[in-house]
Amino acid sequence: MCERTRGDVLARMALVPRTLEARGLDASPPIHARLQQTGYQASAGILDVILRDEIGHVLIGNHWFRHLCEEADLDPHPTYARLAEQYHAPKLRGPFNFEARRDAGFDEAELAELAALAVLKALRLPRMVAPAKNHAARQSAPTKPSFNTSAQRVSQLSLCNRTTILF
Length: 167
Hints:
This protein is mainly α. 69% of the residues lie in helices and 0% in strands. The longest helix has 31 residues, at 41-71.
């Protein structure tokens, strides 16, 4: 992303801190929880320091992105969406750390948009079997997912449960 936005400071401020670094805000709570569960309290404390630093980085990026939008008489919300599409930014995905994002300068409209995105993603169910292309294939297509081992079945159930818990 840094290479793609090297010639456009507005795009850089929109996408590097607000997309890439903000992902660090989102990734922190689950990692923190896992570290604490496994007894790595010191490592969890280090992650708290990193999170505070990331909030500061994203806050500065948000400040400059909004400042540049104001100077160019641009609305930040559609400008961000346009730049994300134009520069092929990674798609935003949850879970989102709304508290850290709020502390980092995301406004309530942006947070509401992320919340809606998380709900929509949670409602999408993975497709288990591809549709058959011809009559012969339709007759032999399985009607329910088949699992070679019980481990695969547990893995599939865990994936479904994680999706429900995360959103």
